[in-house]
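Collaborator request log, item 7. Partner lab (contact: R.S.) asked for a structural prediction of AAA family ATPase to inform their binding assays.
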Amino acid sequence: MNRNVFFILGCPCAGKTTVAKLLAERNNMYYFSGDDRRFEYYKHADKAKHQYMTMDASSFWDWSLSEMVAWEKGVVSEQTPLIIEDLNRLSQEHDLVLFEGMIDISYLLLVADRDHIVYLTVDRDMCEKDFFGRGDHNGMLTAIMNTEGISDEEKKRRVEIRRAAAITAFYEDAQEFDLQSFSRKDIGSPVEMAIKIERFFNI
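Returned to partner:
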């Protein structure tokens, strides 16, 4: 991985997108969102190589929490080499590239240096409280609540298991990977967070 590629990772609701867009704008970086590319990768998934991306999810709501978590993590793991391939290409075309989103950290650390990665975090209770406040997550909530033919109790169950699965899958321990982490709770504004990350990245 070229040294002009940087990574903003983090748990849901930690402010990754807001801070990454600000950081990219302040430093004229090419902004690459893993979330924005996710469905593009689905289109090119190969059944022989991508078990999770090609899995039949028609029974999704009957899955256990552990099955949902495994699927979430599996999809990200399968997409990570595709993300790295795109980033390597983009690093040849742009002076600075900033990735933001979910990625397999174990894989990433095989190809990227720790001083080019930061992990943003937020207390889990705040994460749970804010989860459906995000635009993309709010769409998920709306879809569940507008589902016809199921009881209010089933709608509530679906909301709770969807939130639990996503948070459990992506709430990583940055210390376990020896990554620099910044807490949304401890830093007052996105601008302050961006400045701290700029200093860490030395840009």
